[in-house]
Amino acid sequence: MRRKVTFMRVEIEKTKQPLPENGHIFATMPLRRIVPNPCNPEWKPATCPICGQDCWLQTGNAELVKRVYPSAKFVCSECAWTGKAAATAPVKS
Q: How far is CA 69 from the centre of its chain?
């Protein structure tokens, strides 16, 4: 049985948050092999720019992340948690 999902639109003040010390923000995308059938219609198919795995981009969340951190890079959860994303990111000085 599927549950009904409701969404609430919230206006967020456009403020930019300070970047972490290394200057990189990584937002995670769930892997499609782990979540084959999402119940949320806002999830759209995407590909990880680091490893090329099939993922889901949560468009509503992605919009909010981009408002707060315009330079955020969306990567699969595996690359984010294993450190592959940070290892391939250019060093900021």
A: 11
Per-residue confidence (pLDDT) for residue 35, from 0 to 100? 94
pLDDT value of position 2: 61
Q: What is the 3-state secondary structure (H, E, C) of the chain?
A: CCCCCCCCCCCCCCCCCCCCCCCCCEEEECECCCCCCCCCCCEEEEECCCCCCEEEEEHHHHHHHHHHCCCCEEEEHHHHHHCHHHHHCCCCC
Torsion of CA 25, 30, 33, 39, to 10 degrees: -160
pTM for the structure as a whole: 0.70
Question: Residue range 3-14: average pLDDT?
Answer: 58
Rounded (10°) CA dihedral 20, 75, 64, 19? 10
